[in-house]
Specification:
This protein is α/β, with parallel strands linked by helices. It folds into 2 domains: about 220 residues, FAD/NAD(P)-binding domain (3-Layer(bba) Sandwich); about 140 residues, D-Amino Acid Oxidase, Chain A, domain 2 (2-Layer Sandwich), CATH 3.30.9. It has 9 helices and 19 strands. The strands form 4 sheets. Strands 6-5-14-15-16-13-17 form a 7-stranded mixed beta sheet, with helices on one face. Strands 8-2-1-12-19-18 form a 6-stranded mixed beta sheet, with helices on one face. Strands 3-7-4 form a 3-stranded antiparallel beta sheet, covered by helices on one side. The longest helix has 18 residues. InterPro entries: FAD-dep_OxRdtase (IPR006076), FAD/NAD-bd_sf (IPR036188). Keywords: Oxidoreductase. GO terms for molecular function: oxidoreductase activity. This is FAD dependent oxidoreductase domain-containing protein.
């Protein structure tokens, strides 16, 4: 059975007197002398800036572990890359690199979250078989059916190779995942969502005190998490320390007439255009919603002030449509409805390693950004590690030393 199509999510600013916040953990138990009891300290107030997957995962694990969390998002939750990404998950594809432990921990967290939140039904979590396939545009040769190519891939596919099994690769619908996780955090753990643009971080004597929004609202907090992806340069305390740049990636979402014919096989293509030139590397992800997501055509781009201002380049969208029709007759326009033509900007650090940790010299100010194309995969472990770091002083699920923003401060001193 196909998942129900994604419905609009009613995110609004939740007032302080909301029933969501009226749980025992949000009130001090006082003695007759009105002094707080040591056994039930006041929850730590944390403001998380950014309603993408990294910010939402951080808010989820912070609140689940007892913090009083306000999540602040400028536009709408999962409106940028977290709503337009592919949602592909891989256990071991980052092995041998600095992100290996983060990716493995996060892949396993995705699996446990899917069990906890009924992810197969609520946000399209499922294991996948992943294939590498070569396709030449306008080629008249038929697919090589001696390999593991599924029947719906009836274009000129060659050199098929299995590069991921149902034990090592999986997927989620990224927008549905992000919103489901936040819904759980709001309903069960009292997270407050505020829609507004953060203008600055308030500090006093080297410590964070909260944030001020563009409309003048002030949100007090003992700790601040800046999880604003490619918009990190807005904040001088980050921009003066490191550079995060944006990669603009394009995607289309198709709905085939015969969606039940499309099996759960993710395709990583080596695609040779008809006009020649270097091969491209688009990716194809069928979803249990009955849709097929196709992405590619990426290049460095300037980051606009508002995520709603990110628009696709028509030529890139047309290329992805040609890719779709070359892969399968089920994905040709007419046989499939185009549900979305879109682009998003992925946050990349200057050394291609995520930046996760406390900002040097600013006590109580934390950052989590630079996850590139692996943001959906690495969101849960990043959020869990940030929660541990903020509440316990150190992360145990993943060693964050390799990701610390302090590495840039050391480079500047040299």
């Amino acid at each position: 059975m196909l998942l129900t199509p994604l419905l609009p999510f009613p995110f609004i600013s939740v007032p302080k007197n909301s029933p969501h916040l009226k749980s025992p953990s949000f009130f001090l138990i006082r003695s007759s002398s009105s002094q707080p009891m040591d056994t039930n300290p006041q929850p730590k107030k944390v403001a998380v800036c950014g309603g993408g997957v990294i910010g939402v995962c951080t808010a989820y694990f912070l609140s689940k572990n007892g913090a009083s969390v306000t999540l602040i998002e400028q536009s709408s939750v999962a409106c940028a890359a977290s709503g337009k990404a592919g949602g592909f998950l891989a256990l071991d594809w980052c092995d041998g690199g600095p992100v290996a432990s983060l990716a493995r921990a996060s892949f396993n967290l995705h699996r446990s979250l899917a069990q906890e939140l009924n992810g197969s039904e609520s946000y399209g979590y499922r294991p996948l078989t992943t294939l590498s396939v070569s396709i030449t545009e306008s080629s008249s040769s038929s697919s090589n059916r001696t390999g593991p190519i599924p029947s719906w891939v009836d274009g000129p596919a060659k050199s098929p190779r299995t590069i991921g099994s149902t034990d090592s690769t999986a997927q989620v619908h990224p927008e549905m995942f992000t919103k489901r996780l936040l819904s759980k955090a709001m309903e069960d753990y009292g997270v407050e969502l505020v829609i507004g643009k953060v203008e600055r971080v308030e500090m006093a004597e080297g410590k964070t005190r909260g944030v001020v929004l563009e409309d003048g609202r002030e949100i007090d907090a003992a700790a601040i998490v800046l999880a604003v992806g490619p918009w990190s340069k807005r904040f001088s305390i980050l921009g003066s320390l490191f550079r995060v740049y944006g990669i603009k990636a394009h995607s289309i979402v198709l709905e085939p007439k015969e969606a039940n014919r499309i099996t759960p096989h993710a395709l990583f293509l080596t695609y040779y255009p008809a006009q020649g030139g270097k091969p491209m590397d688009p990716e194809v992800y069928p979803r249990p919603t009955g849709e097929v997501y196709i992405c590619g055509m990426s290049a460095q781009a300037e980051v606009p002030d508002d995520p709603e201002q990110i628009t696709p380049v028509p030529e890139s969208i047309n290329t992805l449509k040609r890719v779709a029709s070359s892969v399968s007759s089920h994905l040709v326009e007419g046989e499939a409805t185009v549900k979305a033509e879109q682009a998003c900007i992925l946050p990349c650090s200057e050394d291609d390693v995520p930046i996760i940790g406390e900002v040097p010299g600013v006590e109580g100010c934390y950052v989590a950004t630079g996850h590139s194309c692996w943001g959906i995969l690495n969101g849960p472990a990043t959020g869990a590690a940030m929660a541990e770091l903020i509440l316990d002083g150190r992360a145990s699920i993943v060693d964050l030393s390799r990701f610390s923003p302090a590495r840039f401060a050391s480079a500047v001193k040299k």
